[in-house]
């Protein structure tokens, strides 16, 4: 199926059809955060405040998919606590610019995790994604990688970013796409092309409209998060 078809929708439950897709539990708390984010009257500060809370949930869920080794430590009272530590190095890669919105929540978890950047833009004539820039950690081939990409509509830009990582030597099964909203056709396109890729999302949307916008959607995420809309309200 073409990843740029208009008005795409699917009857299948993609989170069940593709076992590498994890959708956050649709709790009342999560739905409340989504309602406040999606509201077109939300100010920039309100939008950021609620989006960041969802990002934290997404990153924490992504950590659950990573391998851990045993780690024993001695507590201040001389007892042994048997805990865990990451089994492999971890880094993140933001797809500029929307993906950069997730970086602060990652830093709240661990300041030492390196973050790479990938800039991809869609050609206005061909509508195909084009890589303009990438800067990745030197040891990325040894890492598990969290790819920050809040919006997954057709899947073209995300696929381009994933291919950059594969070309850099990252194993496909070590890549987790951390995503806010995704469409069923976008998931199908990515999971068919990269069957070992893992996706963590907070919402699988209903469909794409004829302009490839997700419904019910959230608007232009980057504009709303970074305040580059006409409103510019705080």
Major beta sheet summary: 8 strands, mixed
CA-based gyration radius: 18 Å
Task: Indicate the percent of residues in helices.
Answer: 25-40%
Number of strands: 12
Q: Please report the number of helical segments.
A: 7
Number of domains: 1
Note the beta-strand portion: 25-35%
What is the CATH T-level topology?
Rossmann fold
Backbone structural class? alpha/beta
> What's the order of the H and E elements?
HEHHEEEHEEEEHEHEEEH
What is the CA-CA span between the terminal residues?
Answer: 42 Å
State the CATH class: Alpha Beta
Uncertain residue segments? 1-12
Averaged pLDDT: 91
Organism: Pseudoalteromonas fenneropenaei
Pfam families: UPRTase (PF14681)
Domain Phosphoribosyltransferase: 26-228
Keywords: Glycosyltransferase, Transferase
Describe this structure in words.
InterPro entries: PRTase-like, PRTase_dom. This is Uracil phosphoribosyltransferase. GO terms for molecular function: uracil phosphoribosyltransferase activity. Residues 26-228 form the Phosphoribosyltransferase domain. It comes from Pseudoalteromonas fenneropenaei. With 234 residues, the chain is of the alpha/beta class. The protein has one domain (25-226): Rossmann fold, CATH 3.40.50.2020. Helices cover 30% and strands 28% of the residues. The strands form three sheets. Strands 1, 4, 5, 6, 7, 8, 9 and 10 form an eight-stranded mixed β-sheet that branches. A two-stranded antiparallel ribbon has the order 2-3. A two-stranded antiparallel sheet has the order 11-12. Strand 5 (115-122) and strand 6 form a beta hairpin. Helix 2 (28-38) runs antiparallel to helix 3 (44-64). The chain is globular, with a radius of gyration of 18 Å. The relative contact order is 0.20. The model is unreliable at 1-12 (pLDDT under 50).
